[in-house]
Specification:
The protein is mainly alpha-helical and about 120 residues long. The termini are far apart. The chain has helices at about 15-25, 35, 55-60, 75-90, 95-100, 105-120. It contains 6 helices and no strands. About 55% of the residues lie in helices and about 0% in strands. Pfam families: DUF732. Keywords: Membrane, Transmembrane, Transmembrane helix. InterPro entries: DUF732 (IPR007969).
């Protein structure tokens, strides 16, 4: 993997960008504001009653990999739902993994993300 230049951009920005790509491809919408990615959502890690069962399962699975710790929880949850929307619109799991790798995730993390989202939010896929 090529070296990525260091910037002052938080580590979760690339995955958040992927979230926008997946959500947009799943919903067929063009353009999303930063506010849409950072919509206020209760913190399920600190407030277990704030999350749905699917959210708890999804976040619990991702907690196995420290690389997800720096990504805001609401971004992860939106990304998980975006995975299901993209799958429902015809994207394959391997396409989503490739997109995640292109956005900066490792292959292992990308696979975990797609599989965790599928299990938690869209088990019929």
């Amino acid at each position: 993997m090529p070296d990525v230049p260091r910037t002052r951009v938080p580590a979760w920005v690339l995955p958040a960008t992927l979230c926008a790509v997946i959500v947009l491809s799943g919903a067929g919408i063009v353009g999303v504001g930063a506010a849409a990615l950072s919509a206020a959502r209760p913190d399920a890690r600190s407030d277990p009653t704030a999350a749905t069962t699917g959210d708890r399962v999804f976040l619990g699975t991702l907690a196995a990999r420290p690389s997800f710790d720096a990504i805001p929880e609401d971004v992860l949850i939106d990304l998980g739902h975006g995975v299901c929307a993209a799958l429902a619109d015809g994207s394959s799991r391997s396409e989503l993994v490739s997109d995640a790798v292109s956005a900066g995730f490792t292959t292992r993390d990308a696979r975990l993300l797609v599989e965790a989202a599928t299990a938690a939010y869209c088990p019929s896929e």
